[in-house]
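Reviewer 2 asked us to include a model.

Predict the structure of this chain.
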Amino acid sequence: MKFTMRIYELLMWLMTQVGFLLALFFSAALPSPPPRVSPISPLLSATMTTVVPTSEEDAALSVVRFVSELANAELGPDVAEAEVSKLCMEAEKFIAMGNWLELAQLMVPSAELIFSKVSDKDVESIFTIICNLVTKTENPDEVEGIVEVISEKIIRQPNEKPAARLKILINLYNLLETPKCRFDVYMKALKFAVNGKVTEYIIPSFKKIDSFLKDWKIGITEQRELFLTISNILKDNKSTAKDSFKFLTNFLATFTGEDAQVLSTAKEEAVRAIVEFVKAPDVFQCDLLDIPAVKQLENDAEYSLLYQLLKIFLTQKLVAYLEYHSANSTLLKSCGLVHEDCVAKMRLMSLVDLSSDGSAQIPYELIKDTLQINDDEVEQWVVKAITAKLIVCKMDQMNQVVIVSHHTDRVFSDDQWRTLRTKLGKWRENIKNVIGTIQASKITEDGSQAAQGLVVR
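Predicted model (structure tokens):
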């Protein structure tokens, strides 16, 4: 009996060993099951967290846990875990109660610390979840509060991953529906781009400003801030100088109808607009003379000479500029204006002025004298004017005349409106006469056909 029991025990031991060996064999041969991952698994892989988000609320908790673990990593495992658990419990309470502003205030301070610890992609993932809190509430005040909490933290360190921070602001903008909040975030993004030296990422949006304005429905004060900020961003780049001048002009135009005290606040920008116009090699037309913010300089003791310069460029010819330069060369230099560049621009504008005198044919000799150039340079300057789209013309070398079919006016004031009205009136009369002639011909033709019909019968 004892022998039988010993054999039984031996067989059981052997089976146990064989089972253990088989388990080892199969565990090595079969692939391990894939780990469960969450929507922000690249972030969670850096820690031992076991949170697996299955909803937006879980995603927020995952962010709270992840960033708090990073923020408290140096406190030791016991203290850190206690702090992490505390924050997660608070986050769960805020989520359950729908206190989204309090949740943002809980998440953002710790999340702001991660910029120096994780990649740009991970930063974007975290803040995408945080920014999404603005979509959880329909309370405008709460939305504004969340926006303020997020944006103020983002813009605080413009030199730390500025491109990533700017992208977060843009993502936040795209999540918003309230016009006021959208405008506020866009302005913060503009100013941050300047401070962080990443304006190249925001400049493409300037092409959509007109549609943005329709969406935002902002007041005059906000428009002034917007136009001036954009103009300042563009002015330092030669390739965008023309656009800078355009937005600066838009800024000055908002002062129409204001009193002298308000106009005086735009005096420096009006001076800058004059200098930028004179300096710009590809801007030949503007309405600055009629804008009150600029016109106030005409009788200003300090800046009246600059207004006079603007008037020369928009209404007179090269000879007037040369006389001005002789008396005010120091002023031009102090404004950063190069005399040779001014002469070149005035030659083109003088050629336009000759085209607008009412004569369709301009003799080469007149062009030479007006532009103060040599005989062999006349056609070169005509070509330059054509290239700049200032005139449409043909050069008759045989008769030494330029035949102009169209020109661009330097200004479009009341005189130009009256001229346009006269032309439209003439076209209207011509069209009316043509229609009358056609109708008369049709009546005659119908009468002839009727008469022929009677004869046939």
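The first helix runs from residue 2 to 29. The two ends are 143 Å apart (CA to CA). We have added this to the supplementary material.
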